[in-house]
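A favour, since you know our structure tokens better than I do. Go ahead and set the record down below.
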Amino acid sequence: MKIFLIFLVIIIIFIVVYLSLSLIITYIFLAPYVPTKKRDLKRIFKLADLKPGEVFYDLGCGTGNLVIYAAKNFQAQAIGVEMVFPLFLICKIKQLFCQRKTIIFKFKNLYKENLSKAEVIYFFGLPETINTKLKEKLEKEVKPGSRIISYVFKIKDWQPEVIDKPRQKDLPIYLYIKS
């Protein structure tokens, strides 16, 4: 019994350390896990103007809610990129229940994903990461005419086509169209 308890404590410590490191890594690469508010989904997808068959990316997709929403409601090829393993597992479990062939979840560093086929890219990131590595990646890889949606924070030195913030209490959503 004592050995079992020691083993259990070691497993719990391992899980806590692993989850903590995963969250720290996420913060370094784009942002900590902050789910998109459900009430903002319609605003986001109105800006996205997503059409059936278009390629939609959610960079740092968390639990995959936007990816599943894009596939179900717009028949888009919806791709979520997530590098926190527990969140990725949640995405894969949701994908099993959703059973849509147009949904893809990738356990991957978003900076290693080729975005050249994307028509719509969505992300939530902190200004420091958006305006350095991510901005540079978007400038290099994204094709002209693609729609880029940033939740809450602007992309420095880019002029948004639309800033959606209908009420004071709403979070801003920025739409950019790659020239």
